[in-house]
């Protein structure tokens, strides 16, 4: 979240604070790192509470100055465990619902704190996630039908770990009381490279002129204006990637997909298709990927990443025994 009520960013002091969780997906622990120091408790503490308490305290101590705060909440990451509000003996499906409810409670806690500090009108709140629903976190014990990744009552195509809509298409919810009208829905394409130029524009900070940035600011949309939405986004996972426009998607294999029925279906277009629209779409996306040149970067093989996950799972099983 970005608190902004400034003329020049340079006129204010700089402060960096952080808490550190050992890994994503931990909830009940007796220790963590806060601002470089180990914090140990006699009893287990719940990470989402530790993180949100840290955030509220940060707001109180820095309320007089502009700030940026990134809160990484582990709910609803696997393993799906009890929350402080869960009842004893809760079923796996109830625990999943409890995690969803606790995430909502945490967001409410953050918003309430900003309200009480008189910072809501000065603070932009963005809520998003880094991937779609996970196979590991959401299993049949949570829901026999596994109705995951649903949008408007229809199943999304793919899940976390896939270069499909269900793996990389996520919502971004913005709230800026008094500036952004409530209840609006936009279909603009946005990817996470857009955050840096957006925050820089809102903070009236100058971006380096000798560096090329892939991101495009969506600050105007956050003010309720039309803005200048980007025409494509880029997604990469290991050695795989794709560029996607509103109607087409081209991956590292040169496969073109029609996105007319996305996010529920992505239709592969034949390489020799004579459809005029497909030809134009392919040429446009090829030009995008040619300029980005993702193959020139450091792209570890997907197999290596999969092996790391497998080793981690085996290590957990060995500890459990």
CATH architecture of the largest domain: 3-Layer(aba) Sandwich
Q: Summarize model confidence as the mean pLDDT.
A: 86
CATH superfamily annotation of the largest domain: Alkaline Phosphatase, subunit A
Counted beta strands: 14
Q: Please tell me how large the radius of gyration is.
A: 22 Å
Spatial separation of the terminal alpha carbons? 42 Å
Q: Given the helix and strand composition, which structural class is it? A: alpha+beta
Helix/strand order, N-terminal first: EEEEHEHEEEHEHHEEEEEHH
In terms of DSSP E residues, the strand content is: 15-25%
**Unreliable runs:** 4-13
CATH class of the largest domain, named Alpha Beta
Largest sheet: 5 strands, antiparallel
Walk me through this protein's architecture.
The chain has 321 residues and is α+β, with helices and mostly antiparallel strands. The chain folds into 2 domains: 2-231, Alkaline Phosphatase, subunit A (3-Layer(aba) Sandwich), CATH 3.40.720.10; 232-321, no CATH class. Helix content is 29%, strand content 18%. The chain is built from 7 helices and 14 strands. The longest helix has 25 residues, at 92-116. The two termini are 42 Å apart. The model is unreliable at 4-13 (pLDDT under 50).
């Amino acid at each position: 979240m970005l608190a902004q009520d400034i003329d020049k960013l340079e006129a204010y002091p700089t402060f960096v604070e952080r808490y550190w969780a050992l890994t994503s997906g931990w909830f009940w622990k007796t220790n963590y790192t806060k601002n470089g120091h180990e914090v140990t408790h006699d009893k287990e503490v719940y990470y989402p509470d530790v993180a949100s308490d840290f955030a509220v305290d940060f707001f109180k101590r820095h309320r007089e100055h502009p700030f940026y705060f990134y809160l990484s909440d582990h709910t609803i990451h696997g393993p799906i465990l009890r929350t402080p509000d869960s009842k004893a003996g809760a079923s796996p499906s109830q625990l999943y619902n409890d995690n969803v409810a606790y995430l909502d409670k945490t967001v409410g806690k953050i918003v309430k704190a900003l309200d009480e500090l008189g910072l809501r009108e000065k603070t932009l709140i963005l809520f998003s996630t880094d991937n779609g629903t996970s196979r590991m976190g959401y299993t049949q014990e949570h829901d026999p039908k596994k109705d995951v990744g649903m949008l408007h009552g229809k199943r999304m195509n793919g899940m976390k770990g896939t270069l499909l809509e269900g793996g990389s298409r996520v919502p971004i919810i913005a709230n800026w009381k008094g500036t952004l009208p409530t209840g609006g829905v936009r279909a603009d394409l946005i990817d996470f490279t857009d955050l840096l130029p957006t925050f820089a524009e809102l903070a009236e900070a100058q971006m380096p002129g000798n560096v090329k940035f892939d991101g495009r600011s969506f600050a105007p949309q956050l003010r309720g204006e039309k803005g200048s939405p980007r025409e494509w986004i880029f997604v990469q996972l290991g050695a795989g990637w794709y560029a996607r426009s509103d109607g087409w998607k081209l991956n590292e294999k040169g496969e073109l997909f029609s996105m007319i029925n996305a996010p529920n279906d992505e239709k592969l277009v034949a390489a020799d298709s004579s459809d005029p629209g497909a030809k134009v779409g392919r040429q446009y996306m090829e030009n995008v990927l040619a300029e980005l040149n993702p193959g020139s970067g450091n792209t570890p093989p997907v197999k290596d990443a999969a092996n790391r996950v497998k080793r981690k799972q085996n290590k957990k099983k060995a500890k459990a025994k």
